[in-house]
UniProtKB/TrEMBL annotation:
Source species of the chain: Candidatus Nitrosocosmicus oleophilus
Domain called Aminoacyl-transfer RNA synthetases class-II family profile: residue spans: 21-288
Transmembrane segments: none
Role description: Catalyzes the attachment of proline to tRNA(Pro) in a two-step reaction: proline is first activated by ATP to form Pro-AMP and then transferred to the acceptor end of tRNA(Pro).
Gene: proS
Reactions catalysed according to its record: tRNA(Pro) + L-proline + ATP = L-prolyl-tRNA(Pro) + AMP + diphosphate
Entry remark concerning the domains of this protein: Consists of three domains: the N-terminal catalytic domain, the anticodon-binding domain and the C-terminal extension.
Protein name: Proline--tRNA ligase
Principal subcellular localization: cytoplasm
Compartmental location: Cytoplasm
Class of the enzyme per the UniProt entry, highest EC level: ligase
Length: 494
């Protein structure tokens, strides 16, 4: 029976042979999410929600430490509000779901299901802001957004409704807004790299790819195992582009009226998709300890004669570890073999497994198994907490280093367009190259290859290819061959 169950619930394809199917199986079989009949919508199961909740708890604390307060916004936006910022609205119009009736009665005005909250929130800001004493106003929201993604959907990566976090701030001067943009971007970067163990490249979006209505957009891009880029977080400087149409003004210290300077920024449950893709293997998920709903799984190994004794010790061990702050679960189910349990918890990506049986109790040791490399070690009970902490730190670091090595391998400096197309026809990846700054060249590259400018790195030291990637190496635009005035990263993307 256990063999039949294992085949049914195990991953039936290899990650490097059928990446898309591998990903879909993990989402479903690890108990992260399930599907409904409406295309583009998923149900987040408790285990998947627990991962999102740990992401939320960590970031929420960081936002509060930097002076941001949480609020709540309705999900319906009157069309007239969207039309107040016409350029912004046009950018989202193809993706907007509309509510046009209430029961059998047509509404006097169409209501948009929130694709993003700028227009709705900024219509309220004039009520809250009148003086420099009201600034900075720094708000954050944990909510959902809806965008009509019905063609190429992928759970956590591209959905018609998704969980996300969006921050909105208003400032008395331009410089303060610029500082806010970078503060948040690097808060995201630290979280994604140090907590999720996913390396990123930071920089600006091109004008074509920036957030609609922003002066500029900063972003973090990650590389997925299939060679496609994934945008992991953005932070936008909105300048005066919303405060002017929405008349968000304040009296400054000289008693003169000014418009506020604004920012917005966000991440989404796309980070869960990135975790699956970057760290998962042919056995299932591999979760970094900080965002693992269960950090330690304890498997009691017993026969009928010693079942009570072994389970009792396993539960006492759990209580001891829980008292130290670990998230621990004991799998006491009798209907499954120990081997089946190993496979299930490997599928769910639990960082550490502890096996405990009669002989372990007698010797006062336990067997500890790492999820990432399946390394086993016999650890004295008296030293268990210290050993687990060392494993957690090593696992977190090793996951990052492995992903960083892959990112560097998949990043190439290319100066010839034929070579550029050849890479994108093959294994894809990040291409570091020159760009003249002309949007026409950017569009032509996209049309010819399917790749777009993912990010314009802040500095050469932000490049995986190292600080020697300068204009001494890259002199010309990859498309028109005119002098390059920017070093950029092209890639195909989700």
């Amino acid at each position: 029976m256990s063999q039949k169950i294992s085949k049914e619930f195990g991953i039936s394809v290899k990650k490097d042979e059928n990446f898309s199917e591998w990903y879909s199986q993990i989402v479903e079989k690890a108990g992260l999410a399930d599907y409904i009949s409406a295309k583009g919508f998923i149900v987040l199961r408790p285990y998947g929600f627990a991962i999102w909740d740990l992401i939320r708890i960590y970031l929420d604390q960081k936002f509060k430490e930097t002076g941001h307060l949480n609020g709540f916004l309705p999900c319906l936006i009157p069309e007239s509000l969207l039309n107040k910022e016409e350029k912004h609205f046009k950018g989202f119009n193809p993706e907007v779901f509309w509510v046009t009736s209430s029961g059998d009665s047509l509404l006097n005005e169409k209501l948009a299901l929130r694709p993003t909250s700028e227009a709705l929130l900024y219509s309220i800001f004039p009520k809250w802001i009148s003086s420099y004493r009201d600034l900075p106003l720094k708000m954050n929201f944990w909510n959902t957004a809806l965008r009509a993604e019905i063609k190429s959907t992928k759970p956590f990566i591209r959905n018609s409704e998704f969980l996300w976090q969006e921050g909105h701030t208003a400032h008395a001067d331009k410089k303060e807004a610029e500082v806010e943009v970078m503060t948040i971007l690097y808060l995201y970067k630290h979280f994604i790299e140090k907590v999720l163990s996913i390396p990123t490249i930071s920089g600006y979006k091109s004008n074509k790819e920036k957030f609609v209505g922003a002066d500029y957009t900063t972003a973090l891009e990650g590389m997925m195992p299939d060679g496609k880029a994934l945008q992991l977080g953005t932070s936008h400087n909105l300048g005066l582009n919303f405060s002017q149409p929405f008349e968000i003004k304040f009296l400054n210290k000289n008693n003169n009226e000014d418009f506020v300077w604004q920012t917005s920024w966000g991440i989404s449950w796309r980070l869960i998709g990135a975790l699956i893709m970057v760290h998962g293997d042919d056995k299932g998920l591999i979760l970094p300890p900080i965002v693992a709903p269960i950090q330690i799984i304890i498997i009691p190994i017993y026969k009928d004669v010693n079942e009570h004794l072994v389970k009792d010790h396993a539960n006492r061990l759990r209580d001891s570890l829980v008292s130290l702050g670990y998230r621990v679960f004991v799998d006491e189910r009798d209907e499954f073999t120990a081997g089946w349990k190993y496979n299930e918890w490997e599928m769910k990506g639990v960082p550490v497994r502890i096996n405990i049986g009669q002989r372990d109790i007698e010797s006062n040791n336990v067997e500890v198994v790492r999820r990432d490399n399946r390394q086993k070690s016999i650890v004295p009970m008296d030293n268990l907490s210290k050993e687990i902490e060392k494993i957690f730190q090593s696992l977190q670091s090793d996951l990052y280093c492995k992903a960083e090595t892959f990112l560097k391998e998949k990043t190439k400096i290319i100066t010839n367009f034929d070579d550029f197309k050849g890479i994108l026809d093959g294994h894809s990846g990040f291409i570091v190259t020159g760009w003249c700054g002309n949007e026409d060249c950017e569009v032509r590259v996209k049309e010819d290859t399917g790749a777009d400018i993912r990010v314009i790195p802040f500095d050469s030291k932000d490049l995986p290819t190292g600080p020697n990637t300068t204009n001494d190496v890259i002199r010309d635009c990859i498309y028109c061959r005119k002098k390059a005035n920017k070093i950029v990263i092209f890639a195909k993307a989700y």
